[in-house]
Structures are given as C-alpha cells and as structure tokens.
Amino acid sequence: MKEKSSSSIAENIKRLQDEIAEAAIQAGRDPKEVTLMAVTKTVPAEEVNLAIDSGITLLGENRAQELESKFLAYDKEGVDIHFIGHMQSNKVRHIVDKVTMIHSVDRISLVKEIDKRARAIDTVMDVLLQVNIGEEESKSGVLAKEAVDFSKRLQEYPNLRLRGLMAIPPWVDNQNQQEHYFSKMNELLVDIQAKNRDNKSIDVLSTGMSGDFIAAIKHGATIVRIGTAIFGEREYS
Ligand SMILES: *Cc1c(COP(=O)(O)O)cnc(C)c1O
C-alpha cells in the first residue's frame, strides 16, 4: 500500500534524516555533507509539497514531461530541482530553465545540446557524469575506464560545468557487495579531481537510493536519491 498521509511522509523524512546523519557520523563525516533528495517520479505535486513542508530542499525528476506538468504546482521557494533520469536530447530545452543540475550526462551529443541550450538562456548548467559502474547492458552511463577522458572533454563546453559523478549500481542485497561499487565510484571521483584542471567544484557524488544509501554514505555520497522510502511504493498507471 502506498502511504499518502502527510504524517507518514513527514515521519519517513525525519527517520531518513536521522539515519543519514548516523551513517555520516559512523563514517567520520559531517552529516551536512549529505543531502537527502526526494525522487518524485509518479508522485503527485501535492505529496511532493508535503515533503517540502517536512524539510526537503532538493527534488529529483526523471522525466521532462512529468516535470513540465508538475513544475508550476511545486512550492519551489528554497528548493532546488535536479534532473536524474535518462535524458533525450530533444527534451533538454524544456528543462534547462527549471533545473539546477543534470545528473545523467552520458554522451557527447547530449553535452553539446545542454551547452547550446544553456547558452541560449545565458546560464551555466551543473552536470554530473553518469557512470555505468556495474557495466550492465540495461543501464546508461559511461564505463569507469572511459570516465576520466570524458570528463576532460567536458572542459571544451563553457556553458556546462562538471560537478561530479552519478551512478545507479547493480542491485545487490548485501551491504559488502553494495560497498564494492560505491567505493569504486569514490575512487573514480578522486581520480577525476586529480586529472582535471578546474577541479575545485568537482565535489558531488550522487549514489545511494532507498535500499542502499547507508553503504553509499560510507563511501562518500553527497546526494542520496530517495523515492520509495519517502513516498511509499510507486504506482505506475
Ligand atoms: C527512481 C529513482 C531513484 C529512487 O529509487 P528508490 O529506490 O525509490 O529510492 C533514484 N535514482 C534514480 C535515477 C531513479 O530513477
């Protein structure tokens, strides 16, 4: 059953914030380094606004069309919106004015389109490079071994700024295995910081989700993208 009451969303957020802080402290990190993103796919705008009332300051959107239909209804004061879904190039122009970061950059043709559309509205778009860390056929993202070269190529595009890495690792039920992928992502971020000239702003690691965020935080996650654990199971119609 999908939890819909405002109290359950508020309780879920409170519990997650406590768990995130605890995981950060366990890892010797400052809890302020980790931001809880509410992933809104399939969730009505009213419920997203309840999450914002309960302290959420960052939303994650998967689909351009869904963002366009809910955007006006969101209580956006003090809230950032990031795009986290697979991005079709022809949708970029619909979202560049609505989001402050795109997590799912995975090919140069998309980089070119973001650069062009950001320039058209006189902005610089923050982006993350999506890495297919488990080398899965079904997932987008560059391979880990391609990531450093790809990150350097981004420097040729002035209206786009590389801020870090994103991954959706293979689902595994075991914390040791989860940690394997997250620690590889963390190592890759360090490598990219070392090999890019403009590396001062490369500091974002967008990794954990509802089922694995504790392991992600242990290995450097700065954004955890959480849907189910806030809003309940998704209902796809
Ligand atoms: C849906 C989604 C999430 C959230 O997944 P949950 O398991 O519901 O927390 C995170 N990241 C991306 C890219 C997603 O599409």
Short description:
The protein has 237 residues and is of the alpha/beta class. The chain contains 9 helices and 8 strands. β5, α6 and β6 (160-167) form a beta-alpha-beta unit.
Describe it for me?
It is a single chain. With 237 residues, the protein is α/β, with parallel strands linked by helices. The chain has helices at 6-26, 45-53, 64-70, 92-95, 108-120, 144-153, 175-195, 213-218, 228-231, and strands at 35-39, 58-61, 80-83, 101-105, 125-131, 160-167, 204-206, 223-226. It has nine helices and eight strands. The mean pLDDT is 95. Strands 7-6-5-4-3-2-1-8 form an eight-stranded parallel sheet. Helix content is 40%, strand content 17%. The chain binds pyridoxal-5'-phosphate. Pyridoxal-5'-phosphate (PLP) is lined by residues 39, 41, 62, 84-85, 168, 209-211, 225-229.
Helix fraction by DSSP (H/I, runs of at least 4): 40-55%
Helix count, DSSP H or I runs of 4 or more residues: 9
User: Judging from the principal axes of the Cα atoms, what is the shape?
Assistant: globular
Number of extended strands: 8
| Proportion of residues in β-strands | 15-25%
Low-confidence parts, pLDDT < 50 over ≥5 residues?
Answer: none
Q: In which order are the strands of the major sheet placed?
A: 7-6-5-4-3-2-1-8
Can you give the mean pLDDT?
95
Bound molecules: pyridoxal-5'-phosphate
Order of helices and strands: HEHEHEHEHEHEHEHEH
Largest sheet: 8 strands, parallel
Produce the secondary structure layout.
Elements: H1 6-26, E1 35-39, H2 45-53, E2 58-61, H3 64-70, E3 80-83, H4 92-95, E4 101-105, H5 108-120, E5 125-131, H6 144-153, E6 160-167, H7 175-195, E7 204-206, H8 213-218, E8 223-226, H9 228-231
Parallel strand pairs: 1-2, 1-8, 2-3, 3-4, 4-5, 5-6, 6-7
The structure holds pyridoxal-5'-phosphate (PLP).
